[in-house]
Amino acid sequence: METLIRKRPYIFILTLLLILMPAGCAQKAHVPEGFVYVKEVIPSAELDIRYYGSNNFTGRPVAGYRAPTAILSLQAARALANVSKDLESQGYAIKIFDAYRPQKAVNDFITWTKGADDSRIKSKFYPNIDKKDLFMAGYLASKSGHSRGSTVDLTLMDKKKGQELDMGSHFDYLDPVSAHGSPMITAHQTANRELLKTTMEKYGFKSYSREWWHYTLTNEPYPDRYFDFDVDE
């Protein structure tokens, strides 16, 4: 009994510490082994996670996005950190729109293509194609590389001006103008895309021909696995 009484204060203190522990201390519990929060590896990265909100081609939050954060495989995050360091030395910073994407989000895209069009959203994101044709055109897929955890959608920021570089089209503008090598943009816009592309490739990423913002780690650690844990903090 005396031993139990002596231990009680310590038990109380431990319980109190667990109750008062900041939510951020438990953050890693939501990330499977082999994955990291991008901001933990690249604190300077700006996040604009579009599928958490409504500023995306669906016009609403997408399933599986429970927080406006970015998650990647450890290998992809480390490679992206090298990209960021290189670009920062040139006066630029990276801005991330999407990284790991759960399979449930991809399934949500499939469901969305079967619904009615919102003319306002269509004019902003896919004005020249029917939503039902987005899969056939290569803009959407039933299995996304994002779900493997080593694909990232991003752009460049001018650190001094605090503005995005002009890439000739905005993120998720599902149109040929967003393709690498598009003749529909200016030389300056092409140069901005090339700066991002050459730097990403320098550190082991490969581009996607139809989308200037889309890059995948060439030696990705999970080439055949598609994950479905939520994007959460």
Overview of this protein structure:
There is one protein chain. The chain is α+β, with helices and mostly antiparallel strands and 233 residues long. It has a single domain (29-217), classed as Muramoyl-pentapeptide Carboxypeptidase, domain 2. Helices cover 31% and strands 15% of the residues. It contains six helices and eight strands; from the N terminus they run αβαββαβααββαββ. The longest helix has 19 residues, at 2-20. It is globular. 33% of the residues are buried. Residues 1-5 and 10-29 have low confidence and may be disordered.
What's the CATH architecture name? 2-Layer Sandwich
Summed over residues and divided by their number, the pLDDT gives a mean of 91
Order of helices and strands: HEHEEHEHHEEHEE
Any idea of the CATH topology? Muramoyl-pentapeptide Carboxypeptidase, domain 2
Rg, Cα atoms, Å: 21 Å
Largest sheet: 6 strands, mixed
* C-alpha termini separation: 42 Å
Q: What percent of residues adopt helix (DSSP H or I)? A: 25-40%
Q: How large a portion of the residues is in β-strands, by DSSP E? A: 15-25%
Strand tally: 8
Unreliable runs: 1-5, 10-29
What is the count of DSSP helices, taking H or I runs of 4+ residues?
6
Number of structurally distinct domains: 1
